[in-house]
Write a structure and sequence with these properties.
Keywords: Membrane, Transmembrane, Transmembrane helix. The chain is α+β, with helices and mostly antiparallel strands and 70 residues long. The protein has helices at residues 2-18, 50-66, and strands at 21-33, 36-47.
């Protein structure tokens, strides 16, 4: 179980180091006046610091290295 968690952390950490964020499109209402509705697509960006990916990567390696073999 610990080994699986470690491997997942390694994969997530490596992905976070490669991709430092992502962008998505959200539809927001601009005007909502009865039957008339006007909406616009707005792009939102989610970023995370690269050191967080490094911490997850190192943590995953430590967990895998210290996990007992069953």
């Amino acid at each position: 179980m610990n080994r699986t968690i470690g491997i997942v952390l390694i994969v997530i950490g490596a992905a976070m180091l490669i991709w430092t964020g992502f962008t998505y499109t959200k539809k927001e209402k601009i005007v909502d006046a009865g039957p008339i509705q006007i909406s616009a697509d707005k792009q939102k960006t989610v970023n995370w610091p690269p050191y967080l990916g490094g911490i997850l990567l190192v943590g995953g390696i430590v967990i895998v290295a210290t996990a007992k073999k069953s």
